[in-house]
């Protein structure tokens, strides 16, 4: 198996890359890699490379000499991996660097497939997040309008002069609570990834996912009917 790793600056420029081979060796496995600067000059000598030999393997973890690869969530192996590497440093003992790789998007759902740089991805995700939130607000406004009209019609039938809009106030409170939750949750995601160039994409991905869920909840609770009457607005699909 062949793989690559790219380390970028905050503005999307390449700092260095790694070229990796996972190969069979002496009836076991070894992971070999070489580092390259942005101008493709190598870190290692021409015929040298780093080699991590397999020590042990489990259903959701592989232990190499000085390298561990394991599932982020053993109960959901496809969700991502954690890589822990022991590195020499100016300290007496080797230091361990931990890298977390999470799956981007759900199976069959591709976000920003044409973006090739970090800056392009950031902008694409930001545009999708904006469009997703605008749709949420549009669906919520439609829900408020429908419930307001329904409340007024009910009061007319009962002969009352003031419609009961307590549930509408609760809907608005729920929307405010969602916005506060989304800000806190996705802010925490950004903090978790703040040392990596992918931090903006991870935070925006969180925002898009939570917003899409909220929009679908609004649609299901307030824009559909118990009988065969068509929904007020189409069922919202995942944002792309």
Descriptive overview:
By secondary structure, this protein is an alpha+beta fold. The chain is 38% helix and 26% strand. The two termini are 30 Å apart.
Key features?
about 40% helix, 3 helices, eight-stranded antiparallel beta sheet, alpha+beta, about 240 residues
List the helices and strands and how they pair.
Layout: E1 2-8, E2 14-25, E3 28-37, E4 50-58, E5 61-64, E6 67-71, E7 80-87, E8 95-102, H1 118-158, H2 166-192, H3 199-222
Antiparallel strand pairs: 1-2, 2-3, 3-4, 4-5, 5-6, 6-7, 7-8
Helix pairs in contact: 1-2, 1-3, 2-3
Q: How confident is the prediction overall: mean pLDDT?
A: 86
Give the strand order of the largest sheet, numbering strands 1, 2, ... along the chain. Answer: 1-2-3-4-5-6-7-8
Give the structural class. Answer: alpha+beta
In one word, what is the shape? elongated
The strand count comes to 8
In whole angstroms, the N-to-C terminal distance is: 30 Å
Strand content: 25-35%
Largest sheet: 8 strands, antiparallel
Tell me the Rg in angstroms: 25 Å
Order of helices and strands: EEEEEEEEHHH
**Helix content range of the residues, please?**
25-40%
The number of distinct helices, counting runs of at least 4 residues, comes to 3
Unreliable stretches, pLDDT < 50, 5 or more residues? none
Offer a quick outline of the entry.
The chain has 240 residues and is α+β, with helices and mostly antiparallel strands. The protein has helices at 118-158, 166-192, 199-222, and strands spanning 2-8, 14-25, 28-37, 50-58, 61-64, 67-71, 80-87, 95-102. An eight-stranded antiparallel beta sheet has the order 1-2-3-4-5-6-7-8, with no helix packed on it.
